[in-house]
Each structure stands twice: as structure tokens, then as C-alpha cells.
Design a protein that fits this description.
The complex is a heterodimer. Chain A is an alpha/beta fold. Chain A has eleven helices and 14 strands. Chain A has two domains: 170 residues, Thiamin diphosphate (ThDP)-binding fold, Pyr/PP domains (Rossmann fold), CATH 3.40.50; 129 residues, Rossmann fold, CATH 3.40.50.920. In chain A, helix 1 runs parallel beside helix 6. Chain B is built from nine helices and nine strands. The N and C termini of chain B lie far apart (37 Å). Classes of the chains: A alpha/beta, B alpha/beta.
Chain lengths: 324, 295
């Protein structure tokens, strides 16, 4: 897709974690708007807020290990006109502080920017307690919340800058490990928009976050199998770009969703809801199937839980057959 | 505590202490009417807080009922949102909205939700009800004011004592002294009851003074049903600049209505018609000591 300025994934790809993109974007957002402030719960370097903390020490608040305090202090800052980015590991925020986010951020409708780091299976060796797989579902069910997952560090940086300008409560999940960089500074990004990263006519693969890359890999191998897959990258899970998704699924007639999170209530849930009401088609949801994770390398875990390109390819074959 | 007869509010209005006590009484009457009409809600806390709210709205706070979003106003957060009838009644008394609206409390379409929602009614600074998050928001606002060099604006957070069971409160209690938030004052309504019973049997809180002091706060202990003492403590809180101040305001739950006072069973229920008539009679006659105008 020339107009999307994507990287050719068949070449050697640069690797960078999405959290690093967030860190870069946050410093830029801080330079652009002095109302941008940040608060962290004892994980400043780990969630990549250290750059902001060094650049703007008077606008950085170290909360200590208290995630309920993290988001409610954030709400207070937003109530007096600040644009607070509040970050911890996703397992703790929004894992621990859901009610505070609902009452003090969403019901209040204040622009607090919640960044959940170390989300998904890419958290690897830390094990199930730290692999946040329920965050998309938790945040998606909350009225007023924008839910996002960048596909790479370049997009994470753009997403962070867009969040700083967005007036709504936002949630962004980022991953710990380095993942392939597949977009460029020229690749467009807008909150609420889905992007067709690879056009096709036989099956729609809808992916979010770090799973967009294996979805593109799967599309490459499917092409060799004689299946022309369309890959849609969904950086904004809520509000969902229904137009782009329905247009594609009406064309292809079958769909696979891919996410590094629980399919129940996650991207898979969102797409199932959309298609169930508008255009039911054969569908397979790739992601965590009502399981917790465990310790291991990201590669081992993605393979074990069926989240790699091989499984996406198999799922695409499956729905493609069901269609016929 | 010094005793004053004349009180000059932050907004330059002058009241006698007796006038403020009458206002508190009127607010209590309105609370009884509102709760009876709503058929649900909390009685004990709002009645006990009437003197604190009278002191805040008619003497302590910089605020403008005609311009609730005034950019130089002080901020009052009500963390224990279930006591909001006292805030609604006081706001109406202060002229934020007509008193007739008070009877819409908890009704469909009302701006006076069962628990306060900022977006529904101008003058509410936040949305609350689920306990424990007000002090943290107060910290955030106080930090924001400091970043913006708006140190003339003060943040007051009213909390319940049962609410102190929430861990979130103590997370905030650690943060405020860390950042030396002297533009923040916590007011704890120490009425010793919560839904399940006396606080000390549900979950012992004492020694509260030592707890707050050990967290780095300057603690003032006052009679929270003494308007003059509340005004005085708030003035003292602003004068103390090296630490945030926590005012432990000892109040009588259900204050002003004899059959409600001290009884934890009145925490979360409204009076029925008969009880409301009895309560209003008592409030209007100083406990039967004088003849009411309505009689």
C-alpha cells in the first residue's frame, strides 16, 4: 500500500518496543503543550516516562506503588485543566483501578490518558500475573473510553501525540518486548480510524496492536496458498471504524480477528458484535481463549496459545472453507 | 477557639453566628423534606454535616453561586458522595439553583442525582459515591493549582470516617505531605457510624489523630457541629503552610433530630412521612422548647 507508507515486511525489519514510542511521543507532547503532565506508579523507566520526568520535572508526579491513587490523582489534575498521562503496568492499571477510572475519569468525562504498559503475552517470563490480557475488555465496556493498541513504536508515538490533543478519556496498551517496526513517520494515524494495510478479496484479517505484524506475515503465506487476504489494522478498538470493517467483510465474506488479549470482550468480541448485528459471516477469533498465560518467551507463548502467523493462516483457511 | 458574633465570609458578606445557625437549621429541614420525598437516601450523614457545609458555603469558600465555574473559586470535593443531600440543600440556600428543585432529588431526569455527578449540576466539582477517591482528586487539583501558580485557590475535601476503611484514602494521605500540599485541607466527618454499625466495631479507625499525624499531616480536632469552630479551623488550616491539614470534625450523626442522633440505623435510610413530620417539628421548635411558626 503505497499511500500508507508501510515498510516492506519481507525485508529485515527494525525492532523496537511500543512503550519506547510512547516515551518519545510523551516528551514531544510535553514540548507542544505545557498542560501535558505525567504521573507514574514506581515504574518510571520501565514504562518509558523517564524522558518526560527528566525534561519536565515540575510536571511529573511520582505516585509510588498505588494504582488507585495514580488514576484518581490523574482525574484531579484533569479537573483543573491538565492533560495527565498516567502509567503503570496494564496488569495494575487498569487491572486494579477499574471503578476509579469509571467514576472519576469516565463519568466525569475528563481527558486522563491511561497507558497500560507490559500488556499482553509479550510480557513473557513475568508470567500470568503480569500478562494483562483483559484490559481491552475492561476498558471497552466503559462508556466514554477510547481504547487503542499501536502496531509498532512509530505508531505508538503518533498515538501518544494524538491522545494529548483528544478531549476524551483514553486508554492505550503498549508492550514490553521489541516488535517489528512496520509503519513509517509518513503512515497516517487518526484516532478512530482503521487502516487496510494489505488489500485482498478472499478473507478479512482484522488485527490490533502487536498482532498486526503476524497478520501481515500470514497474509503473505496465504497468498502462496492461493488465498488473497485483506489485512485491516485496527489501532482504535473503540470507537470502532465500522465503515472500513463492514466494507471489507461485505467484499470478502469471512473474517479472522487477531489480538494479544482475551477474545471475550476484546477486539474479537467487538467485531463479533458488529458483524452479528450487521453482516454475519464465518468468523474465527484468534487470541486468548478464556485462559491465563504463563512464563515463557513471547515466541513460545504466542505459539502455545495459537497467536502466531501459522495459526492465523490456519484460521483464515478455516473460515474461507466455511464460506464456500 | 475564639468565639465570634459577626462572621465575614470570603466573599465579603457579613453574617451573625445566629444567622448561620439558622441557615444550618433550614438546611436540615430541607434535607428531611428531600429525603422523605425521594423515598430513599441517607439521613444521618447529611444532618450531621449541615454545620460544616454552612460554614464552608457561607464563610470559608471563595465561590460565586451565580458563576459556578468562576476561575478563581476554591474547590470543595465531597468524597463521601452519599451525603450529597447536604450539599444540594446548602447550594440551594446559597442561591445556586431554586429551592423547588430540591424535591427532584433522586428522581428521573433530575440534576440532583442520588450521588453527585459533576456533569449534571454546575457547582459540583467531581462525581463521587464509590468511596475513597476524593482525597486523591484533591491532591491532583492542588498539584495542578501549584503548577499553574494559582496558590490563592484552596482545595477542601470532605470525607466520611467509614470511608477511611478504603486503601485509596491512605495512598492519597501519603502523597499530599510528600508534595507539601498546603493548599489542600481534608475534613473528616468523624461521626463514628457507618452502615454496618459503629466504626470501631466494623473496622477500628483509632487512633485517627496519630494516624494522620504519622502520615505527615497537621491535625486539628474540632466540634464539627460548631459552625464557629469549623470556620476557625479552616482559617487555621490556610495559615499552616508547612503541611497539609486534616480537620477531624467530630459530629453527631442525625444531628438535630433526636430519634436519629447517634443511631447507625439512620445511616442509609430516609424518614417516612410520619417521621419527617416529627423531625421537622423538632427542627422548627428547637426540640419542642419553643412554639414553631407553622403551629
Amino acid at each position: 500500500m503505497a499511500d500508507l507508507h508501510l515498510v516492506d515486511i519481507r525485508k529485515k525489519l527494525e525492532m523496537a518496543p511500543t512503550r519506547a514510542g510512547f516515551g518519545k511521543g510523551l516528551v514531544k507532547a510535553g514540548e507542544l503543550d505545557e498542560n501535558v503532565v505525567a504521573a507514574c506508579a514506581d515504574l518510571t523507566a520501565s514504562v518509558k516516562m523517564d524522558g518526560f520526568a527528566a525534561a519536565f520535572p515540575d510536571r511529573f508526579i511520582e505516585i509510588g506503588v498505588g494504582e488507585q491513587n495514580l488514576v484518581t490523582v490523574g482525574a484531579g489534575l484533569a479537573l483543573v485543566g491538565k492533560i495527565p498521562f498516567v502509567s503503570s503496568y496494564a496488569a495494575f492499571s487498569p487491572g486494579r483501578n477499574w471503578e476509579q477510572i469509571k467514576t472519576t475519569i469516565c463519568l466525569n468525562d475528563v481527558p486522563v490518558k491511561i497507558v497500560g504498559a507490559h500488556a499482553g503475552l509479550y510480557t513473557g517470563a513475568d508470567g500470568a500475573t503480569h500478562q494483562m490480557l483483559e484490559d481491552i475488555a475492561l476498558m471497552r465496556v466503559m462508556p466514554g473510553m477510547v481504547v487503542m493498541a499501536p502496531c509498532d513504536s512509530v505508531e505508538a508515538e503518533k498515538m501518544t501525540l494524538a491522545m494529548a490533543k483528544d478531549k476524551r478519556p483514553n486508554y492505550m496498551r503498549v508492550a514490553r518486548e521489541a516488535t517489528p517496526v512496520i509503519t513509517t513517520p509518513e503512515t497516517p494515524f487518526k484516532i478512530g480510524k482503521a487502516y487496510v494495510f494489505s488489500e485482498g478479496r478472499d478473507v478479512t484479517i482484522i488485527a490490533t496492536g502487536t498482532m498486526t505484524f503476524p497478520a501481515l506475515e500470514a497474509a503473505e503465506s496465504l497468498y502462496k496458498d492461493g488465498i488473497d487476504a485483506e489485512v485491516i489494522h485496527v489501532p482504535t478498538i473503540k470507537p470502532l471504524d465500522e465503515v472500513t470493517i463492514l466494507k471489507s467483510v461485505r467484499k470478502t465474506g469471512c473474517v479472522v480477528t487477531v489480538e494479544e488479549a482475551q477474545v471475550n470482550g476484546g477486539l474479537g468480541g467487538a467485531i463479533a458484535e458488529l458483524l452479528g448485528e450487521n453482516h454475519p459471516v464465518p468468523m474465527k477469533r484468534i487470541g486468548m481463549q478464556d485462559h491465563y498465560g504463563e512464563s515463557g518467551t513471547p515466541e513460545e507463548l504466542l505459539e502455545h496459545f495459537g497467536l502466531d502467523a501459522k495459526h492465523i493462516r490456519m484460521a483464515a483457511h478455516h473460515v474461507h472453507e466455511l464460506k464456500q | 477557639m475564639p468565639f465570634r458574633c459577626i462572621i465575614v465570609s470570603k466573599m465579603g458578606k457579613t453574617y451573625t453566628l445566629v444567622e448561620l445557625e439558622e441557615k444550618a437549621n433550614t438546611i436540615r429541614e430541607d434535607i428531611i423534606r428531600m429525603l422523605e420525598h425521594a423515598g430513599s437516601g441517607h439521613s444521618a450523614g447529611p444532618l450531621g454535616l449541615a454545620d460544616i457545609f454552612t460554614a464552608l458555603y457561607f464563610a470559608v469558600l471563595r465561590h460565586d453561586p451565580k458563576n459556578p465555574d468562576w476561575e478563581d473559586r476554591d474547590v470543595l470535593l465531597l468524597s463521601n458522595g452519599h451525603t450529597v443531600p447536604v450539599r444540594y440543600a446548602t447550594m440551594a440556600e446559597a442561591g445556586y439553583f431554586p429551592k423547588t428543585e430540591l424535591l427532584t432529588l433522586r428522581k428521573f431526569g433530575s440534576r440532583l442525582q442520588g450521588h453527585p455527578e459533576r456533569l449534571r449540576l454546575p457547582g459540583l466539582e467531581t462525581t463521587s459515591g464509590p468511596l475513597g477517591s476524593g482525597l486523591s482528586q484533591g491532591c491532583g487539583m492542588a498539584l495542578g493549582f501549584r503548577m499553574d501558580k494559582q496558590l490563592h485557590r484552596h482545595v477542601y475535601v470532605v470525607m466520611g470516617d467509614g470511608e477511611l476503611d478504603e486503601g485509596n484514602v491512605w495512598e492519597a494521605a501519603m502523597l499530599a505531605p510528600k508534595y507539601g500540599l498546603n493548599n489542600l485541607t481534608a475534613i473528616v466527618d468523624r461521626n463514628n457510624i457507618q452502615i454496618d454499625g459503629p466504626t470501631e466495631s466494623v473496622m477500628p479507625l483509632e487512633n485517627l489523630k496519630k494516624k494522620w499525624e504519622s502520615f505527615g499531616w497537621h491535625v486539628l480536632e474540632i466540634d464539627g457541629n460548631d459552625i464557629d469552630a469549623v470556620i476557625d479551623a479552616c482559617a487555621m488550616a490556610r495559615a499552616i503552610t508547612e503541611k497539609p491539614v486534616c480537620i477531624l470534625a467530630y459530629t453527631i450523626p442525625g444531628k438535630g433530630v433526636d430519634f436519629m442522633e447517634y443511631d447507625f440505623h439512620w445511616h442509609g435510610v430516609p424518614p417516612n412521612h410520619e417521621q419527617a413530620v416529627k423531625a421537622l417539628h423538632e427542627l422548627r421548635t428547637l426540640g419542642g422548647k419553643i412554639r414553631g411558626e407553622h403551629e
